[in-house]
Design goal:
This is Insulinase family protein. A hairpin with a 3-residue loop joins strand 4 and strand 5. The protein has 406 residues and is an alpha+beta fold. Helix 1 crosses helix 7, helix 10 runs antiparallel to helix 11 and helix 11 crosses helix 16. It folds into two domains: 200 residues, Cytochrome Bc1 Complex, Chain A, domain 1 (2-Layer Sandwich), CATH 3.30.830; 182 residues, 2-Layer Sandwich (Cytochrome Bc1 Complex, Chain A, domain 1). Strands 1-2-6-3-5-4 form a six-stranded mixed β-sheet, sandwiched between helices. Strands 7-11-8-10-9 form a five-stranded mixed β-sheet, sandwiched between helices. It is globular and about 60 Å long.
Amino acid sequence: MQYLDSRGVKIPFIFEKNSDFPIVVLKLVFRNCARSYDEIAGLAKMFSRILNEGVDDKFFKDLEFRAINLEASSGFESLEINLSCLKENFDFALKSLEKLLLKPRIEEKILQKLKINALGELASKNSDFDYLAKNLLNAQIFKCKEFQSSNDGDEKSIETLSLKDLQNFYKNFIHLSDLVVILGGDLEEKQAKEDLLKLLSKLQIGKKNTPKKYELSKNIKDEILLRPESEQAYIYFATPFFADFKDKDLYLAKIALFVLGQGGFGSRIMEEIRVKRGLAYSAYAMLDMNMSFSRVFGYLQTKNESAKEAKKIVKELFEDFIKNGMTQNELDQAKNFLIGSTPLRYESLSKRLSMSFNEFYQGLNLGYYKEELKLMEKVKLETINAYIKKHQELLNISFASIQNEN
């Protein structure tokens, strides 16, 4: 792993030189911030909106004229800034990024405009039953405040946000101590490092924030929110999954979930719920692992009158999977797909950089995902079925659904 050293702070640095096209891709990731660290729900998301306003009214016009893409986004565990441009415009792009990081538009006029936009988006989501059901599930299975609203926050929290809140966020989270830099393209590494260090030397050093951990509630839930206008039942479900990124056998979980519900057509859940019974157009269950929590997370949409039956089938599928595991044919198909589709995950520069960042973020050695494929290739049926049987926590399924009284 490489590092950029700025005033004694070692900043993780992922780099790939690639001269296939005269382009540059840069990503700055500020870890241990975003929704999970919001003092007021939606604060990190609002700060990313502020960054997307530039430093003045000309900022993005000048970037667009040079075909430079620059965008900030905020998730649950981190805030990131993505930049891409032609090689010839990288110097201008880097100087523009420096201006943005040093003087974001934390202004009352901008904040009020963004509040109106955010509240308008939230209002439109009040009729998005997918969105509502997903938030309902999170609020029920995680009882802590960070999950009681989406990354956007809610109407009350957005109204509450002030310039002081944004300034405090900037001070507490936009600094070197939790930063990761990912860079790739038609650049010489030595020159790229020098250019980046000029930018980083202007940022505050800051203080590392403590990583957070969350556990799903031990109480099994089946929460239903009745909406008379809902023509379908929108059902989300989740189970705990006791695992860590550094577990040496985590690759077995990826195979198992592919067979159970992540593999699309051919997966147990899709075959049983859609193909055999015609209860849903789409149904899945996927491994949802993060640094702060891990779970198996799923979704299906069905007729209101079929909601109870669909939930019952999901439970039965999980129970059978834990008890009996998978077949040799399912194992072979899963391995063939997961190994065979690997080239697609590395086909572009941005994808390769993202894979490398994910390996670092998860505490793995760079290149681990390719090594993992060799382990998958050797998996025996009895090994993976023993692994599946060990994870009895997958039987603790909680549901949340939006449906009407029918």
